[in-house]
């Protein structure tokens, strides 16, 4: 396979014959990625797409893949033109969990004192909104990764599950906590204690996903939602995200206090002034992310 520098040198030729390949493989700085594809999407190129691309192993999550995802997310987080991110997999699998083959020889000692899972939850540190577009299997660590995102859209074939119990272990990247908070104790217990999966429809009914689409339309619809988010003030969007996330971590009183402070903070921004002026003047707001 050609190296990044070769691709860059041959850029103009490649761009003419294969623009998609060029955009996908060379966008993210330092990103000659092996296990993911990154791309800028949307009419204004303001959506960052990260696609897990280890199809032979159903996108099983292992350290090199996680490192690439984190690297790509950092690039999109720091790119001022990007307003929202979409994380997806393939049509068969979002991710079928942590890589069981990689995990099978680990010991308590190597897990506890080593780096295992150290940076698997970097998604939760993102300030920009991230949408998980889940087709196929989202199992174990795959389901946990989707739940770290802000919004989950599902394809009609999606299946969510925490089957770790069948392997003699338990979820280790937030599954027992995030699933329980979202779907409630009874369904979370049932899924985690039996290892049974739920369908896209059941996941929607339980509040785990917000919308379901045909498999082939899923990413397009997730990008459409991300574009809508990216068209608002990026600054104020981050405040809204911070405030919603507080609902999972604080008491109601503390959450409401934080919300009030962030609401007041919006009055220190040009975008709040622009948004309200635009309404009064009956025109579309032109946010400057300031
Ligand atoms: C490593 C995996 C894998 C996984 C699938 N593969 N899931 N490899 N880790 N989690 C590999 C298979 O070994 C196989 O490789 C290839 O992907 C295709 O898988 P098949 O099983 O042949 O496909 P299929 O019959 O369609 O079944 C799909 C499946 C099944 C139902 C998703 O693969 C499955 O049950 N996978 C394991 C799911 C799971 O238990 N996840 C939780 C993991 S624990 P080869 O080389 O044989 O062709 C976990 C802990 C998280 O996530 C805690 C911290 C993050």
Bound molecules: hexanoyl-coenzyme A
Q: Would you identify the regions where 5 or more consecutive residues have pLDDT less than 50?
A: 1-30
**Integer-rounded radius of gyration:** 20 Å
Order of helices and strands: HHHEEHEEHHEEHEEHHEHEHHHH
CATH-level-4 superfamily name of the largest domain:
2-enoyl-CoA Hydratase, Chain A, domain 1
Strand content: 5-15%
> Number of DSSP helices?
14
Terminal-residue CA separation: 43 Å
Shape, principal axes of CA atoms: globular
Helical percentage: 40-55%
In short:
The protein has 290 residues and is of the alpha/beta class. Helix content is 46%, strand content 14%. The protein has helices at 4-9, 11-17, 19-26, 63-78, 100-103, 108-113, 141-148, 175-183, 185-194, 200-205, 218-230, 234-246, 252-266, 270-280, and strands spanning 36-41, 47-52, 84-88, 93-95, 130-134, 137-139, 151-155, 159-161, 198-199, 211-213.
What does this structure look like?
The longest helix is centred in the first third of the chain and has 16 residues, at 63-78. With 290 residues, the protein is an alpha/beta fold. The protein has helices at residues 4-9, 11-17, 19-26, 63-78, 100-103, 108-113, 141-148, 175-183, 185-194, 200-205, 218-230, 234-246, 252-266, 270-280; strands at residues 36-41, 47-52, 84-88, 93-95, 130-134, 137-139, 151-155, 159-161, 198-199, 211-213. Strands 1-2-3-5-7-10 form a six-stranded mixed β-sheet, sandwiched between helices. Strands 4-6-8-9 form a four-stranded mixed β-sheet. Helix 2 crosses helix 3, helix 8 packs across helix 9 (185-194) and helix 12 packs antiparallel against helix 13 (252-266). Helix 4 links the parallel strand 2 and strand 3. It folds into two domains: 5-230, Alpha-Beta Complex (2-enoyl-CoA Hydratase, Chain A, domain 1); 234-280, Lyase 2-enoyl-coa Hydratase, Chain  A, domain 2 (Orthogonal Bundle), CATH 1.10.12.10. The termini are far apart. The protein has 14 helices and ten strands. It is globular, with a radius of gyration of 20 Å. Hexanoyl-coenzyme A (HXC) binds next to helix 5, strand 6 and helix 7.
């Amino acid at each position: 396979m050609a190296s990044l520098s070769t691709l860059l040198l041959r850029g103009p030729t490649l761009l003419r014959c294969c623009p998609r390949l060029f955009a996908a493989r060379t966008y993210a700085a330092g990103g000659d990625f092996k296990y993911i594809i990154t791309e800028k999407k949307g009419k204004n190129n303001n959506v960052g797409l990260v696609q897990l691309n280890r199809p032979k192993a159903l996108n099983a999550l292992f350290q090199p893949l996680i490192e690439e995802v984190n690297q790509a997310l950092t690039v999109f987080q720091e790119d001022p033109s990007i307003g929202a991110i979409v994380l997806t997999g393939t049509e068969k699998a979002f991710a079928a969990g942590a890589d069981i083959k990689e995990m099978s020889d680990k010991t308590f000692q190597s897990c506890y004192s080593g780096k295992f899972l150290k940076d698997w939850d970097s998604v939760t540190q993102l300030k920009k909104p991230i949408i998980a577009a889940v087709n196929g299997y989202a199992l174990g660590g795959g389901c946990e990764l989707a739940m770290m995102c802000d919004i989950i859209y599902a394809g009609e074939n999606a299946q969510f599950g925490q089957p770790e119990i069948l392997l003699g272990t338990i979820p280790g990247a937030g599954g027992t906590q995030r699933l329980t908070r979202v779907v409630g104790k009874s369904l979370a217990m049932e899924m985690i204690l039996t290892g049974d999966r739920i369908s896209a429809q059941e996941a929607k009914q339980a509040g785990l996903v917000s919308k379901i689409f045909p498999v082939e339309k899923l990413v397009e619809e997730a990008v459409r939602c991300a574009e809508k988010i990216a068209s608002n003030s990026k600054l104020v969007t981050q405040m809204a995200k911070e405030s919603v996330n507080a609902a999972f971590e604080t008491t109601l009183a503390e959450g409401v206090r934080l919300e009030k402070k962030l609401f007041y903070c919006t009055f220190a921004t040009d975008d709040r002034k622009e948004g309200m002026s635009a309404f009064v003047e009956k025109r579309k707001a032109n946010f400057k992310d300031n």
